[in-house]
Write a structure and sequence with these properties.
The structure is a single chain. Helix content is 30%, strand content 25%. It has helices spanning 24-33, 50-61, 87-92, 100-106, 126-134, 165-175, 191-202, 234-246, 262-270, 308-315, 335-341, 371-383, 394-397, 403-409, and strands at 5-9, 15-19, 40-44, 65-69, 72-76, 84-85, 109-113, 138-142, 145-149, 157-159, 181-185, 206-208, 214-218, 227-229, 250-254, 274-277, 281-285, 295-296, 321-325, 345-349, 352-356, 365-367, 387-391, 413-417. The strands form six sheets. The protein has a four-stranded mixed β-sheet, with helices on one face. A four-stranded mixed β-sheet has the order 2-15-17-16. α8 (234-246) runs parallel beside α12 (371-383). It binds ligand EPZ. Ligand EPZ binds next to α1, α5, α6 and α12. Ligand EPZ binds at residues 24-25, 28, 95, 121, 123-128, 162, 164-167, 188, 305-306, 328-329, 371-372, 399.
Length: 421
């Protein structure tokens, strides 16, 4: 499908306030968790993103009634009847695999087509399957489909080989209706996991320990619907912080939970930017060039991989040489070639990138290859000389709500050109 493009005039200093939307990576598991409540749950502050639309399509396909009013989403899971999701729907967004746990808990059966890999990695599901099998689920993978079924879920002691966010979420959502106690060890500790725990407990579940490395779940008979406000998107907030730095700006980023941004704040401050924390907002000011810093992506509370491309764009213009190591995904340097086209001096050795800072980036024709690579190039274009044409910006629509108007308000000069076809 033809994708739209941005035409961005760089070197516009960004100033003013920008409000962060609800977290994409919390909204997606919360929407899946709504399946567990027999009735209508209400989620507030759900961002209007392509990935959310796709998850809603999956829920509707399963028989849920979903009504959106502005940022409020009502999901009626009372009428759930199907538990199969076909190829076309699954291909659109791999996070639809988060329906595995809830459907097994509600129905004891699910069939999904194996969500494909994506630009940044092969995205295996072995930890999801290992954890579900330990809860008594039978899993069969055939012809690109994953079939799972169980006549009853039994609590178990699950150890994850990698602290997978999705696997932790799927196992949590199956375990809440299992018989007995489940402990998930080496669990992911992201704030989105804590948000999911809070929603599940409002539904009557008994989950404790999210955010630490062991989560304990006491299974219950059934869950009732609940209402919940999604946490703000820490990756969107981090992206705006970098936009302020790269344009030598002065920006107040509103609707943030500062502790969710600790690793990002630490690194941006280490690079020399001036960061001021308020209760639920952060001010970022920058004058002159930032210093180079070394960076290693790690599971939370380490530096988030979802901020790595954006940070690389910023370090492309730092004083000195920086080293970035991407430890989470095996192919998350697609933005390097495009940044090079804008004059960045970057070499890649396996999972390590060496960035020699340049005085300034130059406008060029570049294209987004995935969501966060697109965000990185968007930021680079804001800071570059003259004009940048950024192709395939529909990737960016997956994770950033109302980007154009939010940035125009800050003084950015950008046009979105629709491509027909
Ligand atoms: C979530 O993906 C996020 N997506 C990703 O954000 C994020 O990059 C990632 O967590 C890591 O923080 C959503 O929450 C919807 P993982 P997820 O399972 O759950 C390996 C964005 O830009 N692994 O924690 O799929 C895997 O290969 C997206 O918003 C296994 O080996 O990530 C990867 O190397 C991109 N076996 C690592 O773990 C498994 O069964 C982390 O993956 C599962 C994962």
């Amino acid at each position: 499908m033809a994708m739209d493009r941005y035409v961005i005039t760089g070197k516009q200093r960004l100033e003013g306030k920008i409000r962060v939307s609800g977290a994409k990576n919390s909204s997606l598991p919360l929407l899946a968790a709504a399946i567990l409540g027999e009735g209508t749950s209400t989620l507030l502050e759900i961002p209007d993103l392509v990935d959310i639309t796709h998850m809603v399509e999956v829920l509707e396909h399963l028989g849920c009634g979903v009504v959106r009013q502005g940022k409020t989403m009502q999901i009626n899971a009372g009428g759930l009847e199907s538990c199969e999701v076909d190829e076309a729907l699954m291909r659109q967004m791999r996070a639809s695999n988060l329906i595995l746990g809830p459907l097994l808990a509600r129905f004891g059966r699910v069939k999904i087509s194996r969500p494909g890999g994506c630009a940044i990695g092969s995205r295996p599901m072995d930890q999801h399957i290992k954890g579900l099998e330990q809860l008594g689920v039978k899993v069969r993978e055939k012809h690109g489909y994953i079939e799972a079924w169980t006549d009853h879920l039994q609590g178990a002691d699950v150890y994850l080989d990698v602290p997978s966010v999705g696997a932790t979420e799927n196992i949590m959502m199956a375990a809440v209706l299992a018989k007995g106690v489940t402990v998930i060890r080496n669990a992911a500790r992201e704030p989105e996991i804590v948000d999911l725990q809070n929603f599940l407990n409002k539904m009557g579940a008994k989950v404790r320990g999210s955010g630490l490395d062991a989560i304990r779940i006491d299974g219950v008979e059934k869950l009732h619907p609940a209402e919940h406000i999604v946490i703000p998107d820490r990756i969107e907030a981090g992206t705006h912080m970098i936009a302020a730095v790269m344009t030598q700006g002065d920006v107040v980023i509103e609707n943030v939970i500062p502790e969710h941004l600790e690793p990002v704040i630490a690194k941006i401050s280490q690079a020399g930017a001036r960061v001021t924390l308020m209760d639920d907002s952060i001010r970022v000011q920058q004058r002159g060039r930032i210093r180079s810093v070394d960076l290693k992506t790690m599971p939370y509370p380490g530096f988030p991989t979802d901020m790595q491309p954006q940070f690389m764009a910023m370090l492309s213009c730092a004083e000195g040489t920086s080293i970035i190591t991407e430890t989470i995904f095996e192919n998350r340097f697609q933005h390097v070639d495009e940044l090079r086209r804008m004059g960045a001096k970057i070499t890649v050795e396996g999972r390590t990138a060496i960035i020699r800072g340049v005085q300034t980036l130059e406008g060029a024709f570049v294209e987004a290859t995935d969501l966060r690579a697109g965000a990185a190039l968007f930021l680079a274009a804001l800071a570059a000389e003259e004009v940048t044409v950024l192709e395939k910006v529909n990737y960016i629509d997956r994770g950033y709500e109302n980007l154009e108007e939010k940035y125009r308000q800050l003084g950015a000069k950008l046009l979105r050109i629709h491509q027909e076809g």
